[in-house]
Amino acid sequence: MADLELVRSQPDGYCxxxxxxxxxxxxxxxxxxxxxxxxxxxxxxxxxITAVIGSGVLSLAWSMAQLxxxxxxxxxxxxxxxxxxxxxxxxxxxxxxxxxxxxRNYTYMDAVRANLGGLQIAVCGVVQYSNLVGTAIGYTITSxxxxxxxxxxxCFHKHxxxxxxxxxxxxxxxxFGLIQIVxxxxxDFSKLWWLSIVAAVMSIxxxxxxxGLGVVKATDPGHSYGTLDGVSLGDVGASRKVWRVFQALGxxxxxxxxxxxxxxxxxxxxxxxxxxxxxxxxxxxxxxTTTVFYMLCGCLGYAAFGNDAPGNLLTGFGFYNPYWLIDxxxxxxxxxxxxxxxxxxxxxxxxxxxxLRRLCPQSAFINKEHVIKIPxxxxxxxxxxxxxxxxxYVVFTTxxxxxxxxxxxxxxxxxxxxxxxxxxxxxxxxxxxQKRISRWTRQWIALESITLVxxxxxxxxxxxxxxxxxxxxxxYRPFKSQY
Length: 483
Prior knowledge:
17 helices
């Protein structure tokens, strides 16, 4: 290990000079003996943008309509600030006990185990991995909505506005699932950088299109630009207004959810410099980029549609003109979600496979890699267990998505259940434990106050989103599309 540390501290040229000498493999290994990580601030930022600018951006205009011109921007900025602050704390938990020289924590659960221990490890695992599953289901639903929108748009353009262009979501969910079965065979997170870059470009592209369409529609004369307090009590009633505000909080929380994969992203970053420094730069770049887009898309979307803003921003522009531009935006959404699905699913794949390897170290079915030669590509390592279990997982998420095609309510539940524990509670508690902050000091009280306020917001968002699902179930028929 001492030799490894000495070699890694030298310039790249020194490593190349050793490649034919006494230490041919040292330059290809990190301080933990694993293959050397190659991630940079740019690849980490791409992962973050792919994870953050997801389908949540499409619901922000609707959220603004529930909150109004005063509370809406304040809520979005507040979530951005809290997410950025706690992400900085979480980045310091990648190594323990020292944030720069300690032992690596490869997953979120490893960080909780090293800093908190006890029952909180199991709680973290249940919350994190159930939300990873839920996010995969939500992305399957959203991708099908966009594919259906393309089909309907082309149908209306070809046959006229009065044509019957009913389209089922189910075949498109199945198509999305088939694509994910293929991509799920990407071995691990470190091999996912190229897909994240493509997805990040796509997310920025459809956000810009939505932004441009919002500007054009907002400049049309004669329509409402929204109100200071959003949808009025007279339109929906007092109780419904409260539920919608709570659900909007959940949608905004979901839009900023990436902490559940932050440690896994950080584990792809090379060092030196220390991983936490690079991750903090990537977090600043990622959160600032997404917040600018969120504020623009949410505010301009609300200005365009007023209190009638749709749950999915792009569906509000209709299917007619400019239908081709909306089609492009929906294609970008689908491509982005193809990559985002993998960003949120790879940590779950790794958890299951690593756990079984530890339990069954002698099993050839679980551990053996079969080398397959692919012309013009090279070799690919096929693992039978990986092939079968990941395929079953994708089939499962696809079936659940077909059963529960509720867009906004699903987003709200995912955001509410993940935001407080994974974005706020665990990062703050791990930071307190790592820095040995004493109880009832000013710093301790300030940190715990943030935790308490965010808990109350998350509870409100969860209650509102559950009420929305209950309301949807009153008219719901399994496997029947609303389009």
